[in-house]
């Protein structure tokens, strides 16, 4: 199908709901970091959309940097063993750092990332995640800013992919079963 919409089962969070939530989060972040220099660290590739919209919704000047990580191991689930594909360009020693993520699923990626970045001695280290699944809500990750707690369904769009597709949808949705082709 040429039309991405044909692959979707439902829209979980509309474009308007996403943008309204991002404005709320940005207002909180502006207030919390008033008078401090903030470095946003986006986690490639899923966080590109939320990073771009959140950064533009902030009124304070911020810096942005990016990390690319890959969790490997057997199966489709994150193993918690993470490898850095692209490290930060910035030395974060003494900086106020806010990690920006699209989704926390098992929480393994972020718990590894938090301990990795914490070992570099930032002045502060917090997390902003647009979406959070139930398993992560139980994990020992202290997420300062959460957009939406969502059910344990496979979601795509607004940065989130299935086999590298659907990231460019402006909303978050679930995929129709035929897309998985029985290999889910
Ligand atoms: C996805 C998502 C989060 C992570 C969450 O990234 O963007 O970064 O998985 O999963 P976890 O909480 O179970 O660790 P992915 O590894 O698919 O890379 P991508 O961002 O390039 O899609
Ligand atoms: Mn990711
Ligand atoms: Mg992915």
Characterize the structure shown.
It is a single chain. The protein has 184 residues and is an alpha/beta fold. It has one domain: Rossmann fold (3-Layer(aba) Sandwich), CATH 3.40.50.2020. Helices cover 26% and strands 31% of the residues. The chain contains five helices and nine strands, in the order βαβαβββαβαβββα. The protein has helices at residues 15-32, 48-57, 108-118, 134-138, 177-180, and strands at 8-13, 38-44, 62-71, 82-86, 96-104, 124-132, 145-149, 155-156, 172-175. The strands form two sheets. Strands 4-3-2-5-6-7 form a six-stranded mixed β-sheet. Strands 1-9-8 form a three-stranded antiparallel β-sheet. Helix 1 (15-32) crosses helix 2 (48-57). The protein is globular. The mean pLDDT is 92.
Put the structure in a nutshell:
This protein is α/β, with parallel strands linked by helices and 184 residues long. It has helices spanning 15-32, 48-57, 108-118, 134-138, 177-180, and strands at 8-13, 38-44, 62-71, 82-86, 96-104, 124-132, 145-149, 155-156, 172-175.
Output mean pLDDT: 92
Helicity range: 25-40%
Strand order within the widest beta sheet: 4-3-2-5-6-7
**CATH architecture group name:** 3-Layer(aba) Sandwich
Task: Identify the bound ligands.
Answer: 1-O-pyrophosphono-5-O-phosphono-alpha-D-ribofuranose, manganese (II) ion, magnesium ion
Count of beta strands:
9
Instruction: Please give the domain count.
Output: 1
Distance between the termini: 19 Å
CATH domain class name: Alpha Beta
Largest sheet: 6 strands, mixed
The stretches of 5 or more residues where confidence is low (pLDDT under 50) are none
In the CATH hierarchy, the third-tier topology is known as Rossmann fold
Principal-axes shape call: globular
Family: Belongs to the purine/pyrimidine phosphoribosyltransferase family.
GO molecular function, one term: guanine phosphoribosyltransferase activity
Cofactor: Mg(2+)
Main location: cytoplasm
